[in-house]
Amino acid sequence: MTVSNKIRFIDLFAGIGGFRLGFEKTGHFSCVFSSEIDRHAAEIYSANFGDTPHGDITSIQNEDIPPFEVLLAGFPCQPFSIAGEKKGFEDTRGTMFFEILRILQHHKPKVVVLENVKHFKDHDKGKTLKTVLDKLNLLGYSTVWKLLNAKDFGVPQNRERTIIIGCLENKSFHFNFKTNPIIENKITNILDGDDASFEYLDESEYTLIQKPKKQESGLIFVGYRNKKIRTVGVRENTEHLSRVHKQPNRIYSSEGIHPTIASQEPTGRYFILHKEKVRKLTLNECIKLMGFDNTFKFIGSSAKIYNRLGNSIVVPMVEQIANQIYLQLFSNSIETVTINHPQQLELFSK
Q: Which residues form the signal peptide (predicted)?
């Protein structure tokens, strides 16, 4: 497939390019426009894709964007004060979602893919999600959404994200595709070799618990750094519970998966028990936990890179979504399910 006949997409709120990378890895899609306001994120994006994203989306005119078939956006979560009270989408003005809507209304791409945090469905008591779906419906998009977890896509990280997909032309996307997780998906699969420089904790700096149990999520909490614990609402003798300890002080087994990489953790204080020693994950290991390979270029301070990673999306998950979008909505190789009118399909993943 040549560039000229690939499916064109635009990458809004692009970050460092996790969405773009996942779609382009399929070989079916080509990016024709991107936008990112954060300067450091844009520098990393430019270093890897050869073009610098446009800046503030509110300053971008509809006519400045070339024709495209798919819109991608990991947009900020904002409440809509009078959500649902009007027939149009003016009640979203002042939010970043409004910028997406105006671009969709002007260009009318066949597919829109939105990404947000796990708790997006509960934001503003559910009004925010309802508004997003309603406004997409008003523009003619049939919408479906689901919580997807990185751990189901071969990445040893418990990272849930809300994915919303809208389609025109009476087509509908279905999330009931099978994922292909690797056998025994665990942290050990992404660890650096023994020749790497590791930051070990002295045995006096941490406490390991007896008989740790693997949680339903796949995490194995095995201990904690000897730091101050939470006291409000905490019972005595509960030090063996992970929730008592702040995230940077928790220690997890490398035989399980890792908790969510957070954007608010600039020092990368993620500790694991591996080969009977407790050490900090390296920055490179955190990069791999997000699904980026060693060819992806990261520039800037480690603090900034940790922030960029925490705000990014897991690449293998995006790649599989992109493949399914191609198969279900753009390929003639399988039958596409059609519907008579735009609707909302609410799918919850446990």
A: none
